[in-house]
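Here is one chain, start to finish.
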Amino acid sequence: MKKSIILMMVGCICILSCQTSNLENTSSEWDNIFNGENLDGWKAVAGAAPFEVKDSEIIGYAKANTPNTFLITEKEYTDFILELDLKIEDLSSNSGVMVRGQFDPAKKDGQGLVFGYQIEADPTARAWSGGLYDEARRGWLYPLDLNPKAKEAFKMGEWNTYRIEAIGKEIKTWINGQEVSYVVDDMDSRGFIGLQVHSIGNQENEGNKTYFRNVRVQTENLTPTPFQGDVFVVNTGLNELTDLEKENGWKLLFNGENSDGWKGANKETFPEKGWHVKEGILMVEAADGGESSNFGDIVTVEKYSAFDLAFDFKMTEGANSGVKYFVTLSEGNKGSAIGLEYQILDDERHPDAKMGREGNRTLASLYDLIKAEKQGRFVKGPGEWNKGRVVVSPDNKVAHYLNGVKVLEFERGSQDYRDLVAQSKYKIWENFGEASEGHILLQDHGNEVHFKNIKIKELN
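Its structure:
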């Protein structure tokens, strides 16, 4: 009996010893890049908001009529895991954390410009904290409309623990343990870490504080933390899926190499001319601007019911096109095949934007039915890539997104929906848009339009 007790005690000591050893190893891999006493290794740039150290915390003070101010590391980092605590005391004090940040001291008449990846700290009702914003460059890459469950992670007036992994092309974020954003992008592979005090225009908000503490980074023996949830991934690469997407059921509808999986609408084969696959891009040539009167629409070979569809598109000036869904090819229509349409349009230059009712033919709208409520800063113009998304839930609720922001939603088959159809060009088709399944369609409207990164996930 005594021998058993002794063996058990020895075993416990060994386990505790191993655990202590592992903790020590883990701890030793972290570098506390804020020493808790002063700002050695950091410098403030771009604006005039002041920073000070007090009680082992960095405090940034809002200052009126000065640009965004950043406290940045003098050292640059490539791959790393960053953890820190952040607290905001006032709704006016937007903040953020720069990762692989860039600084051009010559910009803004020598005042300098910070640009690059910023992980948001958003205390407002919009609640996009943890999203990824490309400061002074491309704008939002990951708005939290893409992960609405994460909007509740950030706590106003409380300490929030941020974890940011920048490993290879992948940037992932967590707030208080909640998975928030997942971006695959290769624009910057190296840069500084920075803490932001956002500019304010109202003198009354001057002096409001943003707090940072426990800023530490790991740069060696990095092991990416896998996301466990079904989080939407923004990938700016070319026709590729992450392991997480594959595990969650995403598939490429366009493989980037050929037209496999697509055919001409009302045809058995892919169009012989007009549509091309080149360097990973699917594009339709410009013709006379006619609707499906030149090379014809193309549709997926497969049909889909409930799904999450994402696609990148690039317009030429004055272009008109669309992505349609629940296309049955049963109406015998002589023009474009009939289906619900995510409108693709150069709103500034194409006359269709001023037709229809109350803007319901503009970019990202449900064509001729519901206007997309969008802000200009979330729209990329001709020659730039936009990200479209259509989500059809099993309960027939549908949402359109443009560049990560939800711009409309409706319910197929509802009375409100049917009332809209009754006022539209589609009123002549019985039960328009209410089929149980249908093809996905890319429209030929006689203008040059490009597509890539077309992916879909079927929903149950």
